[in-house]
């Protein structure tokens, strides 16, 4: 398999075509962005860490019968994945209050929720990814009701699997974001990445933040935080 034409460049990844139209090549970049691209930095090694962590997470989800786009890790910073048409929604699952939920509700960061919350945000940089409800999504034809139901169900299943997995590694899964797409056969699958860029992960004993909040809030070294996560997942720190 070879990477061919650059199809898309996002904030954290580049996507290339391959000789197989069902498969694309993903390259993780060393860039960090926050607040809709307002804060930016290049962090050596971040691409490799997110590629390693995402590969581990997707392999684990596949073993638990969650359909994902992941096929294999190709190199320390690259993966091959199924080609999907992305549904323009960010699906966020929350177990504990943090981030924009703390802002929106006034509840303190760290407040444990009675049950997980699933939220949908419209993926649109110009609008700053607004929170949408089911009616907004259906009225704008971003997804059909069956897809929405399936996304919500899969997101909650992923939450249960990840929560169990991280708890064993002495990490609390506070919240995370998923993206979904339809593959060339029209099947809905989990796409994009699952890494400390897209999850809030706190140390179970100290509540130390081991995710992108380290960068967003200038709390220390992002690389050290992501390395701690990779180490606890049993991943390869030195490639
Ligand atoms: O910022 P907020 O509290 O809404 O984020 C909820 C979760 O979704 C966090 O884990 C955050 O890292 C993730 N997220 C993301 N990409 C975005 C927005 C949020 O990965 N564009």
Automatic annotation (TrEMBL):
<dbReference type="InterPro" id="IPR050089">
    <property type="entry name" value="SAICAR_synthetase"/>
</dbReference>
<dbReference type="Pfam" id="PF01259">
    <property type="entry name" value="SAICAR_synt"/>
</dbReference>
<dbReference type="InterPro" id="IPR028923">
    <property type="entry name" value="SAICAR_synt/ADE2_N"/>
</dbReference>
<comment type="similarity">
    <text>Belongs to the SAICAR synthetase family.</text>
</comment>
<protein>
    <recommendedName>
        <fullName>Phosphoribosylaminoimidazole-succinocarboxamide synthase</fullName>
        <ecNumber>6.3.2.6</ecNumber>
    </recommendedName>
</protein>
<keyword id="KW-0547">Nucleotide-binding</keyword>
<comment type="pathway">
    <text>Purine metabolism; IMP biosynthesis via de novo pathway; 5-amino-1-(5-phospho-D-ribosyl)imidazole-4-carboxamide from 5-amino-1-(5-phospho-D-ribosyl)imidazole-4-carboxylate: step 1/2.</text>
</comment>
<keyword id="KW-0067">ATP-binding</keyword>
<dbReference type="InterPro" id="IPR001636">
    <property type="entry name" value="SAICAR_synth"/>
</dbReference>
<dbReference type="InterPro" id="IPR018236">
    <property type="entry name" value="SAICAR_synthetase_CS"/>
</dbReference>
<keyword id="KW-0436">Ligase</keyword>
<keyword id="KW-0658">Purine biosynthesis</keyword>
<dbReference type="InterPro" id="IPR033934">
    <property type="entry name" value="SAICAR_synt_PurC"/>
</dbReference>
<dbReference type="GO" id="GO:0004639">
    <property type="term" value="F:phosphoribosylaminoimidazolesuccinocarboxamide synthase activity"/>
</dbReference>
<feature type="domain" description="SAICAR synthetase/ADE2 N-terminal">
    <location>
        <begin position="6"/>
        <end position="232"/>
    </location>
</feature>
């Amino acid at each position: 398999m070879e990477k061919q034409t650059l199809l898309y460049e996002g904030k954290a990844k580049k996507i290339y075509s391959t000789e197989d139209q069902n498969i694309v090549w993903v390259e993780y970049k060393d860039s960090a962005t926050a607040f809709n691209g307002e804060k930016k930095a290049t962090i050596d090694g971040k691409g490799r860490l997110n590629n390693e962590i995402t590969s581990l997470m997707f392999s684990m989800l596949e073993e638990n019968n969650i359909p994902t786009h992941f096929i294999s890790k190709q190199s320390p910073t690259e993966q091959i994945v199924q080609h999907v048409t992305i549904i323009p929604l960010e699906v966020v699952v929350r177990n504990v209050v943090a981030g924009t939920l703390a802002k929106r509700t006034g509840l303190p960061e760290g407040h444990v929720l009675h049950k997980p919350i699933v939220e949908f945000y419209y993926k649109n940089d110009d609008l700053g990814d607004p929170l949408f409800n089911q009616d907004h999504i259906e009225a704008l034809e971003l997804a059909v009701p069956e897809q929405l139901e399936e996304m919500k169900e899969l997101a909650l299943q992923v939450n249960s699997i990840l929560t169990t997995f991280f708890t064993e590694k002495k990490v609390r899964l506070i919240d995370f974001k998923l993206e979904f797409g339809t593959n060339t056969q029209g099947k809905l699958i989990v796409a994009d990445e699952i890494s400390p860029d897209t999850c809030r992960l706190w140390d179970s004993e100290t509540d130390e933040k081991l995710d992108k909040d380290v960068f967003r809030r200038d709390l220390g070294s992002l690389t050290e935080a992501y390395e701690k996560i990779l180490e606890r997942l049993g991943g390869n720190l030195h490639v």
